[in-house]
Write a structure and sequence with these properties.
This protein is an alpha/beta fold. The protein has 2 domains: 6-198, 2-enoyl-CoA Hydratase, Chain A, domain 1; 202-248, Lyase 2-enoyl-coa Hydratase, Chain  A, domain 2. 50% of the residues lie in helices and 17% in strands. It has helices spanning 30-43, 66-70, 74-92, 109-116, 143-151, 153-162, 168-173, 183-198, 202-215, 220-235, 238-248, and strands at 6-11, 14-19, 50-55, 59-61, 98-102, 105-107, 119-123, 127-129, 165-167, 179-181. A 6-stranded mixed sheet has the order 1-2-3-5-7-10, with helices on both faces. Helix 4 packs across helix 5, helix 5 (143-151) crosses helix 6 (153-162) and helix 9 (202-215) packs antiparallel against helix 10. The two termini are 29 Å apart. It binds octanoyl-coenzyme A. Octanoyl-coenzyme A is lined by residues 24-25, 27, 62-67, 69, 77, 80-81, 84, 105, 107-109, 131-132, 135, 139-141. The site of octanoyl-coenzyme A has 24 residues, from helix 2, helix 3 and strand 6.
């Protein structure tokens, strides 16, 4: 598929997906969403060990496309919300970690997209918010749930009810982002983290992601039992044999992802 609204560059086993609709601040219309779905579900293969998702020019994503939403019936808006939610779930459940390198505005659906990623790293210029109440609507791409699970209900309620925008430092303070860098450093620091992740046993990383994602929706006793199941799965891998042998032989492990 030829993408009109994003680019996807792959270097070794790290993919960088850049949203490229700068004239509309990378707002998510149906075409952008469909390209995002394609890249995560069909284009990127099992060889990929980490993905960096970022935006071109001054925005990460300024939200769902307000102009496109304007013409929708309530039923169409529900279908649009639902299809976006399923695409975000495919990012959340992608086999390898996804780092959101938030370069600028991450508002509404843009903040929700960043929340569907495993880790958020922000530029000093990034701005976050759920401004939907300014438009008479609510977050519809998972924001009421993922923001609450990420920063806790107190801060999530404040951001969602007021529609206020916060800067990168405040997003860092409340745990919405892991780190803040200058705009010039953002991608290099994201690649550095991606390379660290990509150097680890890929199946183990993938199972960690599954344990965290699925376990957080279970009660604690079921969740830790689920962790034991996945632990046994990692224990039966070739990479476990290699990792432990390499430790004993005092050499660097070479992982194959099996
Ligand atoms: N949708 C469509 N176009 C947009 C959007 C958007 N979300 N954001 C910006 N644009 C467009 C502008 O209309 C403008 O286009 P044009 O040049 O043709 O007039 C262009 O991008 C540049 O924007 P501005 O001139 O406004 O740039 P500024 O630097 O002055 O302002 C802001 C930047 C503050 C980010 C401002 O553009 C803004 O407030 N944007 C809207 C932010 C917003 O409200 N986002 C939430 C949208 S709702 C949402 O995301 C719901 C998600 C769930 C949907 C569920 C499915 C139904």
């Amino acid at each position: 598929m030829e993408y009109k609204n994003l680019t996807c560059e792959i270097q070794e086993n790290i993919a960088t997906v850049t949203l490229q609709r700068p004239k509309a601040l990378n707002a998510l219309n149906q075409e952008v969403l469909s390209e995002l779905r394609h890249v995560f579900t069909e284009h990127l293969t099992r060889e990929i060990r980490c993905v960096i998702l970022t935006g071109s020019e001054k925005a990460f994503v300024a939200g769902a496309d307000i102009k496109e939403m304007d013409g929708m019936t309530p039923l169409q808006s529900r279908q649009f919300a639902r299809s976006g939610q399923l695409i975000f779930e495919s990012i959340e459940n992608f086999h390898a970690p996804v780092i959101a390198a938030v370069n600028g505005y991450a508002l509404g659906g843009g903040c929700e997209l960043a929340l569907a990623c495993d880790i958020r790293i922000a530029s000093e210029k990034a701005k976050f918010g759920q401004p939907e109440v300014n438009l008479g609507i609510i977050p519809g791409f998972g924001g009421t749930q993922r923001l609450t699970r990420t920063v806790g209900p107190g801060k999530a309620r404040e951001l969602i009810y007021t529609g206020n925008t916060i800067d990168a430092q405040e997003a860092h303070r409340i745990g919405l982002v892991n780190a803040v860098y200058t705009p010039e450093e953002l991608l290099a620091k994201s690649v550095e983290m991606a390379k660290t992740i990509a150097s680890k046993a890929p199946l183990a990383v993938s199972l960690c992601k599954k344990a965290i994602n699925m376990g957080s929706n279970m009660d604690i006793s079921r969740a830790i039992e689920f962790e034991a199941d996945l632990f046994a799965e990692s224990f039966s891998s070739e990479d476990r044999k290699e990792g432990i042998e390499a430790f004993v032989q005092k050499r660097k492990a070479s992982f194959v992802g099996k």
